Amino acid sequence: MSKLLFDPSETLLSFDSYQKSDGFKALACVLKMKPEDVIKEIQDSKLVGRGGAGFPVGIKMSSVLSEKDGPKYIVCNADEGEPGTFKDRELLKRNSMKVLESMVIAAYAIGASKGYLYVRGEYNFLKDQILNQLDDMRKNHYLGDDILGSGYDFDIEYRSGIGAYICGEETALIESIEGRSGDPRVKPPYTASKGLWNKPTLIHNVETLINILPIMNYGADYYKQFGTEKSTGTKLFSVSGSIKNKGVYEVPFGTTLNKLLDLCGGPTGRIKFVQIGGSSGIVLSKDQLDIELSHEAFEKINAGLGSGAVYVADESVCIIDFLNATAAFFRHESCGKCTPCREGNRHIEKILASFKEGQGKLEDIDVLLRTSKVMKEASFCGLGQTATSALSSAIEVFKEEFIEHIEGKCRTGVCKIGGLSHES
Ligand SMILES: Cc1cc2nc3c(=O)[nH]c(=O)nc-3n(C[C@H](O)[C@H](O)[C@H](O)COP(=O)(O)O)c2cc1C
Ligand code: SF4
Question: Fewer Cβ atoms within 10 Å of its own Cβ: the N or the C terminal residue of the chain?
Answer without folding.
Answer: N
